[in-house]
Design brief:
Chains A, B: Keywords: DNA-binding, Transcription, Transcription regulation. Chains A, B: GO terms for molecular function: DNA-binding transcription factor activity; transcription cis-regulatory region binding. Chains A, B: InterPro entries: HTH_LacI, LacI/GalR-like_sensor, Lambda_DNA-bd_dom_sf, Peripla_BP_I. Chains A, B: This is LacI family transcriptional regulator. Two copies of one chain form a homodimer. By secondary structure, chain A is α/β, with parallel strands linked by helices. Chain A folds into three domains: about 5-45, 434 Repressor (Amino-terminal Domain) (Orthogonal Bundle); about 60-160 and about 295-320, Rossmann fold (3-Layer(aba) Sandwich), CATH 3.40.50; about 160-290 and about 325-345, Response regulator (Rossmann fold), CATH 3.40.50. Chain A is built from 13 helices and twelve strands. Chain A has helices at about 5-10, 15-20, 30-40, 50-55, 70-85, 105-110, 125-135, 160-175, 190-205, 225-235, 250-260, 295-310, 340-345, and strands spanning about 60-65, 90-95, 115-120, 140-145, 155-160, 180-185, 215, 240-245, 270, 290, 320, 325. Chain A has a six-stranded parallel sheet with strand order 2-1-3-4-5-11, with helices on one face. Chain A has a four-stranded parallel sheet with strand order 7-6-8-9, with helices on both faces. In chain A, helix 5 packs across helix 12. Chain A is elongated and about 80 Å long. At the A-B interface, helix 3, helix 4, helix 5, strand 2 and helix 6 of A face helix 3, helix 4, helix 5, strand 2 and helix 6 of B.
């Protein structure tokens, strides 16, 4: 059986150097090449499971998302994957759906597969699962995406959702809208509450009275939830002249329902999303939204994990990123019609 | 340290039964509940890595996709995830991008993390990586999605792409189109060649001469590739009255370019996709396409893996599934405008 030392001998380097290459640590390109050639020539197959027991590190990071059929979470995973690959680490993706069956025990199983850290999006998780996450965060680094857990060891990267939604609604009031419907999603979460607060503050700043019956709650965060929720807003009198979705998918659902009823967007009703993703530019008209810097946030999450594994952080890190208003045709008829590829092309 | 036998004692069952529960095997709901309660009460944390060394099974299946930002591959992963979860197995997702850097060595690393099987979509893989896959398939079950590897141990689930594309083009000729442009993608792959063959055979059946200059090759499979490729077809004279994409994303790219040039779809040019996915019903007009039974195929892939792990299969399994024509507004103005949720809602 070929062993690590045989590879080292053929490559003319130390066993420590071979180990570094196998674990993805930075070495000179020349050393990397010699080791890889030696591995290939000897057909050496290190046993990663045995090594992970010995070294106590697996060089892999678990990534958990609530859905795998939502482009929003796939962009997040893609960002994390790119960041981890650049560090020579392997991402493992897990989906926590169906949420109502996802258990603390399953969470433990994933943890015990020996990942060095977790990057998680916890939407829909039950308290019992979150409590397990708090315990895991005492043992390995955990970074939460978009949601912070004060008082626990969980790090987080997020955005200021109140100011982000404020920008969205301020854009609408600045172009003359006074009657603005709001599709609220995730009101049980801090992010959902902050977005509603941003909506209310922007109305207040424009001197518009808040009306309870212009706010409808969607069942969840997906396209069909927005498609269903918007129908309640269309029963209001007078009709709202603009509708904002608390996330991009519910706004797209609203837009699709309005299209099916031949409502002209933005002439009859303007539609605004939040938390921009590639779908925004594929629907007609293109959806105005508020963009969150997914790739900067995921790169930071990866950096926090890496530093934490190396023991750099002595305290819990919580970072908020800024948002950017993206004005497109669903609120502004004259907005540029250029097709945007950048978020697909990465 | 709490051990398996302590859990068994508290639960009043054998250690074998605890092991079954931990490994996700079918046991009575009552036994499952007692074991879970005992695990929770004792805060027992089995070491999965150590167990995987001992039992030689990890109860996890690796899933490899070429992209994570393409809804097509995410539907595939979602199907596999649902299927594996139902069997109590854990899916690990890996992305093989960037393809030009993805190496046989990385493939080995993934294999050596101790998965019991692999379900793979190999688009873009280099020969050196494929050769590594052939070797891995001698050791653990491997099922390929959409591509077969005759003469190797790799199982496959696929569709008859020639007859699928034949249906798409036959639909267009049946409603009067005689000049049909074709955006070819993946001509270096068997699937791409079969689709082109289907296009040619449908023309022949309708008595339409094949013209080389109505076929353009896209750089790759994504939306922007179709957006770019269709521009060549618009330089032909006379213009084609219909355009077919060899996959759904290139067709959506074509549709988006035509929209940006104010071409009326389907009145001026009809657009047809292939390999339907949820985006089809989000673009305007909704895209006609040929649907592949993703969930049936992924369920079958999971079943093949499970049977192969149990040693059921003595030979390589290759299964072809039938396709279904989906007629929507991009080829037929009068097609139903009802919004389709079923593929989002699963």
């Amino acid at each position: 059986m070929i062993q690590l030392k045989d590879v080292a001998e053929l490559a003319g380097v130390s066993t420590g150097s071979v180990s570094k290459v196998l674990n993805g640590y930075a070495v000179s390109p020349r050393m990397k090449k010699s080791v890889e050639l030696a591995i290939a020539e000897l057909n050496y197959k290190p046993n990663m499971v045995a090594r992970s027991l010995r070294t106590k590190t697996s060089n892999s990071i678990g990534v958990m998302v609530p859905y795998t059929n939502d482009p929003y979470f796939m962009e997040f995973f893609r960002g994390v994957s790119i960041g981890l690959s650049e560090k020579g680490k392997v991402p493992f993706l897990f989906s926590t759906e169906p949420h109502d069956e996802f258990s603390a025990q399953k969470m433990q199983q994933i943890f015990m597969r020996g990942v060095d850290g977790l990057i998680v999006s916890t939407y829909g998780w039950k308290d019992s699962v979150l409590e397990e996450l708090y315990l895991i965060a005492e043992k390995i680094p955990v970074v939460s995406y978009k949601r912070s857990f004060p008082g626990t060891a969980i790090h987080s990267v997020g955005v200021d959702d109140c100011s982000g939604m404020f920008k969205a609604v301020e854009h609408l009031t600045s172009i003359g809208h006074r009657r603005i419907g709001y599709i609220a999603s995730g009101l049980n979460l801090d992010t959902g509450q902050q977005r509603l607060k941003g909506y209310q503050q922007a109305l207040e700043q424009a001197g518009i009275a808040y009306e309870d019956n212009l706010v409808v709650e969607s069942a969840a965060f997906q396209i069909e939830d927005g498609y269903n929720a918007v129908q309640q807003l269309l029963k209001r009198f007078p009709l709202p002249s603009a509708i904002v979705g608390a996330n991009n998918s519910v706004a797209i659902g609203a837009l699709k329902f309005l299209e099916s009823r031949n409502v002209k967007i933005p002439e009859d009703i303007a539609v605004m999303g939040y938390d921009d993703e590639p779908l925004s530019t594929l629907v007609t008209p293109k959806l105005s939204s508020v963009s969150v810097p997914v790739y900067e946030m995921t790169a930071k999450a990866v950096q926090i994990i890496e530093d934490a594994i190396l023991g750099v952080h002595k305290e819990t890190i919580n970072i908020l990123f800024p948002t950017t208003l993206k004005i497109r045709n669903s609120t502004d008829f004259s907005a540029t019609a250029a097709f945007e590829f950048e978020r697909f092309s990465r």
